[in-house]
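User: tokens in, sequence out, please.
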């Protein structure tokens, strides 16, 4: 998707963004509200998660509390519509697939995703993803002090050309909110993301010895079995086609990861944090509140 932002000035970007916000509010605002209310925790649910003494280990529970969902925002002439919704993941951002816009008769112009545990100011990764994809608009649904909101953003011209202005203190973007105490925290088991076929190809694609070891272990063959050579070739071709062969997972059934904690904010604390972050963010982006 190319939108020609390298030639646009701030005034033009702001005017186009405000018009797009109005169109999205009219045409899909109700859908975005419903997605936010469905996939973002209420303040009561957040407090319940905080009060638990047990860490979250069950994958379903982790996705229910922490899983972001997202979808592309598409346009066909003057018509705005939403593309296919992603499955809940712990982190959305650039995982949103844009191809459904074209399949549904439109073009990809931006994205929507949820922040399930409160707030709807974008992370650095959110903004940088939007810049990389040249999105015209990026919208986030969240809960701000027990009030569901959807806010949309677009980077200013200088940010699209040179990137975000980082806070020099500790490499942070948003200032640290040391004076605002968290309501509490939750502990959960964060799994190590599985490798992609490209990752595996880069790691062992040229390592005959390791591939042979995986194949012989999986199929119960000797290294000098005449079928091994063909199976090695099939293994590499499968990786090149973007799939991970079954043989790779032999002996890798154990889940890898570690326990992690997240601080949660509710009520006035969350409202104050969002107020400060929005004020800070406006040096880099334009924003509009859809709901």
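Assistant: Sequence out:
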């Amino acid at each position: 998707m190319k939108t020609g932002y390298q030639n646009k000035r701030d005034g033009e970007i702001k005017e186009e963004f405000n018009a797009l916000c109005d169109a999205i509010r009219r045409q899909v605002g109700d859908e975005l509200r419903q997605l936010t209310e469905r996939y973002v925790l209420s303040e009561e649910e957040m407090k319940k998660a905080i009060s638990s003494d047990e860490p979250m280990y069950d994958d379903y529970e982790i996705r229910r509390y922490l899983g972001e969902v997202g979808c592309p925002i598409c346009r066909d002439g003057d018509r705005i519509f939403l593309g296919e919704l992603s499955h809940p993941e712990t982190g959305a951002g650039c995982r949103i697939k844009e191809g459904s816009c074209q399949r549904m008769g439109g073009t990809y112009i931006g994205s929507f995703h949820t922040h399930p545990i409160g707030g709807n100011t974008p992370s650095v990764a959110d903004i940088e993803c939007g810049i990389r994809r040249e999105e015209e608009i990026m919208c986030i649904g969240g809960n701000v002090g027990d009030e569901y909101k959807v806010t949309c953003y677009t980077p200013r011209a200088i940010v699209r050309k040179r990137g975000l202005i980082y806070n020099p203190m500790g490499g942070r973007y948003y200032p640290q909110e040391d004076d605002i105490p968290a309501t509490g925290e939750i502990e959960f088991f964060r799994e190590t993301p599985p490798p992609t076929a490209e990752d595996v190809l880069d790691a062992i694609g040229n390592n005959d010895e390791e591939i042979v070891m995986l194949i012989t272990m999986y199929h119960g063959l000797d290294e000098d079995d005449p079928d091994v050579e063909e199976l090695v070739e099939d293994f590499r071709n499968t990786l090149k086609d973007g799939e991970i062969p079954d043989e790779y997972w032999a002996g890798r059934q154990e889940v890898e990861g570690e326990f992690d904690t997240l601080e949660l904010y509710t009520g006035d604390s969350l409202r104050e944090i969002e107020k400060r972050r929005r004020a800070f963010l406006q040096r880099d982006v334009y924003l509009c509140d859809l709901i």
